[in-house]
Amino acid sequence: MTAKAWTDDPADLLRVREGFRIADVDTGSTPGFAGGKAEAEAVFARSADELSELQERLFAESRSGGTKRMLLVLQAMDTGGKGGIIRHVVGAVDPQGVKVHGFKAPTEEELKHDFLWRVRRQLPGPGMIGVFDRSHYEDVLIQRVRQLAPEETIEERYSLIRAFEDEIVADDTVLIKVMLHVSAAEQKKRLTKRLERPDKHWKYNPADLDERQLWPQYQHAYQLMFDRTATADAPWFVVPADHKWYARLAVQRLLLDALRNLDPQWPKADFDVKAEKRRLAADTIS
């Protein structure tokens, strides 16, 4: 098996389209990838350099007036692997060109505003790759499951989210929305591991077990979220995530595809390169 183990573009295979059913997703599958963990690690390593260069070009282009930027939205059930994506995939690029924000329960200040107020404040600027660890979608997921807002309010939020995402896409933002989909059995394994390893205790929250009891309700809420907010310009990608190596490789490929399509360019020098070379050659300071 060569390092080129992709047989199909995962962007096509993982994209949520009309008729999509989350219940039909095999969370242990590896759509579009013919190899195993070893082959995935080889492809991942080879692709990391290209991802890093494209990110640097995006960042550099903005320094000469470029307006393009990207936003990666990560959603998942607990233990879904969002942290691993941020650490291993996004962590492979220059941190000065990345803005990561994790959304937790709203603060008192945030509750004084509409639910998208705090999200707007964290959007990436030109040349940046923004990453949301959870996002505005918590306001139609946990709020629905926990019945923290009336049904009509949740329905209105879907429309507000679509309008918001249309707005940022029109503002030169490439939006990639990813749901890392793990099975209930895999989640139990990962929670067990956190309890068995003292160095993982900090990741464990007893409330995770309470949320786990609501697994069917969350699956229903995710399905409604896809039905209401998967659009042509702001697509959802559901990534089978029982294999962490596949989830990381797939998200890396989604980012690569998006950056290749953007095709950011190195800025042209706004000075006389030849003249500067002559000046430097004549420099006698040592």
| Unreliable sequence segments | none
Q: H/E element string?
A: HHEHEHHEHHEHHHEHH
What's the total number of strands? 5
Radius of gyration: 21 Å
Strands side by side in the biggest sheet: 2-3-1-4-5
Word description of this protein:
With 286 residues, the protein is of the alpha/beta class. Helix content is 48%, strand content 11%. Strands 2-3-1-4-5 form a five-stranded parallel beta sheet, sandwiched between helices. The longest helix has 26 residues. The protein is globular and about 75 Å long. The relative contact order is 0.20. The model has no long low-confidence stretch (mean pLDDT 95).
Keywords for this structure?
five-stranded parallel β-sheet; alpha/beta; about 290 residues
Give a topology summary.
Elements: H1 10-14, H2 37-62, E1 69-76, H3 82-89, E2 98-102, H4 108-111, H5 117-120, E3 129-133, H6 138-145, H7 151-170, E4 173-181, H8 184-196, H9 207-212, H10 215-229, E5 236-240, H11 244-262, H12 273-282
Parallel strand pairs: 1-3, 1-4, 2-3, 4-5
Helix pairs in contact: 2-11, 3-11, 6-7, 6-10
What can be said about this structure in brief?
Helix content is 48%, strand content 11%.
